[in-house]
């Protein structure tokens, strides 16, 4: 009976050690993945009472591009918390790479754009042609129709987007 009890306790001890080790391995892998992909996806930023966030960024297939180009699809959620209607669209955003080069909106039929009523949210996609090897990308909101000298911009670090599955 003692041998059976000792064997059972030993087995339990081994299993609990394995479970703890497994959990810490998962934690380490999660932290490593987060460190590799420092992005501001899903981070809400506000300008003039307009709350904006980029909910996803991915490279999609597009047969109209040159061999060295890729199509970046960004999904936006924009909420109007101001007291007036607010117009916004894909053309109000551009992509910037780590060397500072800008990439404007691509002429894609599914680009979003609309006037958002007070208290409402606009969800939509914007499409941008970028180099295939582009890395460390930033999305910049730079309202196209605002020509003021004190024009404000906001930006999100999106890293290096992966291909959509």
UniProtKB/TrEMBL annotation:
Keywords tagged on the record: Signal
Ranges for domain DUF4352: 40-145
Highest taxon in the source lineage: Bacteria
Span of the signal peptide: 1-19
Any Pfam family matching the protein: DUF4352
Entry keyword Nucleus: no
InterPro entries assigned: DUF4352, Immunoprotect_excell_Ig-like
Name the record gives this protein: DUF4352 domain-containing protein
Taxonomic source organism: Listeria booriae
